[in-house]
Specification:
By secondary structure, this protein is of the alpha/beta class. The chain contains 8 helices and 11 strands.
Length: 247
């Protein structure tokens, strides 16, 4: 485990209330989409990077898939473990930083959804290298031909919405597309400074290619509105469908 960062602290405190967020209410429709897109037989092994409370992993396990969930937050994983037991399914849960987690190529597919690790910068993280490392780690875990589905923060939105005043105040950096926010912890009066990196679609395609993936589609990916549709400029997230090439 890496040393604690602000996102880890935030999600540890927010974990008991995470499933109250409205964007989590569309889980079943999202799972239907994932199953159709991945087109894998039951029993296939799927890696869920940034699994959080396990809402995708648990439902996929209920549909017959073998799930491994990775998350930096022990609080979120505790919620995932309790929820999996309530639902009567077994999922492997790993407490690790996605920029450090790597396995042998044993997975038939991978998902990284709803700001699951990707885009969330720790204090010392480089805004160019960290997410590339995550992609390279995921690439290493996949069997040849395996598909990877990811959503990332849509860089088109902040470019259109932030002002020069926001840039001058240090809220948004137009060079790195990094946003800096103050976030209140749920379990105390503490305030955290957090950073998140958004991406334009061409950046994502390039990053995926550098990591070794073949990008098959780029779609709109905002939670609750998944589908094979063009990206809206002002929506929250963009979805990338990629595949590890068969050698």
């Amino acid at each position: 485990m890496a040393e604690t960062n602000s996102w880890q602290e935030y999600f540890d405190s927010h974990a008991p209330r995470y499933m109250q967020n409205p964007f989590t209410y569309g889980t079943l429709k999202e799972i239907d989409f994932l199953i159709e897109e991945l087109a894998l037989p039951k029993g296939s092994r799927i890696l869920d990077i940034g699994c959080g409370t396990g809402r995708h992993s648990i439902e996929l396990a209920k549909r017959g898939y073998t799930m491994t969930g990775v998350d930096i937050s022990s609080g979120m994983l505790a919620e995932a473990d309790a929820a999996a037991k309530d639902e009567g399914v077994e999922i492997e849960l790993v407490n690790a930083n996605a920029a450090e987690y790597r396995s042998e190529p044993v997975f038939d597919a991978a998902i990284c959804l709803c700001e699951g690790a990707f885009c969330l910068l720790g204090e010392g993280d480089d805004p160019y290298e960290r997410d590339l490392t995550i992609l390279q780690n995921i690439f290493a875990t996949l069997k040849p031909g395996a598909k990877f589905i990811m959503t990332a923060l849509n860089g088109c939105m902040p470019i259109r919405q932030y002002t020069q005043e926001d840039i001058d105040r240090g809220i948004f950096d137009p060079v790195t597309l990094v946003e800096t926010h103050l976030m209140e912890k749920d379990d105390s009066e503490g305030i955290l400074i957090v950073r998140e990196r958004s991406y334009t679609p061409p950046e994502l395609v390039l990053l995926f290619r550098i990591a070794g993936f073949k990008v098959e589609n780029v779609w709109g990916g905002t939670a609750g509105n998944w589908g094979k549709r063009p990206l809206d400029l002002d929506e929250m997230e963009v979805m990338v469908i990629a595949r590890k090439p068969v050698l």
